[in-house]
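Usage

Read records sequentially. Each one opens with the input sequence:
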Amino acid sequence: MVNLYSKTEEQVKDWLVQEGFKPFGAAQIFNWLYVHQVRDFSEMLNLSKDLRAKLAETFSLSLPGLGEVLRSEDGTTKFVCVLEDGKKIETVLLSHEDHNTLCVSTQVGCAMACKFCLTATLGLIRNLEPHEIVGQVLLAETLLPEGQSLRNLVFMGMGEPLHNYDNLILSLKILLNRRGLDFSWRRVTLSTSGLIEGIKRFWAETEVSAMLAISLNGVTQEARAQLMPVAKKHQLEELIGACRELPLETRQRITFEYVLLAGVTDDLVSAKRLVALLNGIKAKVNLIPFNEHPDLPYKAPAPEQVRAFQQYLLDRGLLCTVRKSRGRDVSAACGQLAAKASPTAC
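and closes with the structure output:
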């Protein structure tokens, strides 16, 4: 049975017409699903009895099951989503003073094999379907205190979003739909390891958009390829060239994420090369001090080294922030997601 949470409003509209119903019912259905968030077709009271029966016959309204929920001392919540086939993914809810952000996964595991990321140790098991991506958002909302909502979505969880391109786009069409969950595209960030054709393809999309973050992590081709095998195909020079060609709005910037690994990427020679590399690009650098894990070989940089690296960039006019590590005590920090799932890889 097809999951209705995987369908965009246009797809629902086409189905309605095909089945002999009025197309305006699609807007009503979306309102029930995402505004009222009902989980039973019988509760969609402004739909005809025949339509409700046909919907129940054709579609399911199942969401991922809510598995273990771990709450960090800093207010971060990591929860496990149990999928229909028994696979598991992890999603992270970040609570701030004035808003909430959800770190969303797009794959079970990941094929990019980044050396500093725990998810990479799983390999790619499978892509998530749209309803499994959207379902993370709906589940997260049930964990929020009454009166609170999600403001930001960051596609920085398990998996490479652009490696699951079609399902990513369908999910965004639902998440950004004003009759759906109605997120502003400016509050949605897509983080990629640098799949060049995927970046170009996404930027050419006319129905969806999002802020772009590039996981850089190396300032030379050799250094980047050692940490990120994907760089062997998606060469640094070509990636930076593609970023230069992206048409950006006046106040829009590309975020470059840079993981600081002690003795590997945190020296000021690398900082100098990073400044030169991004020269002429409307860029923002987000430094990510490495979050240590016993299964990964790297060490976190000293705080004073992080400050020195950031100051070097700031002094040369490059906008630069340091990502505050959240949820380390529950393995919810950047690079630490690795829900145990069936090991059968793609």
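Summary fields computed downstream for this record:
- Residues 30 and 36 are 9 Å apart (CA to CA).
- The mean pLDDT is 93.
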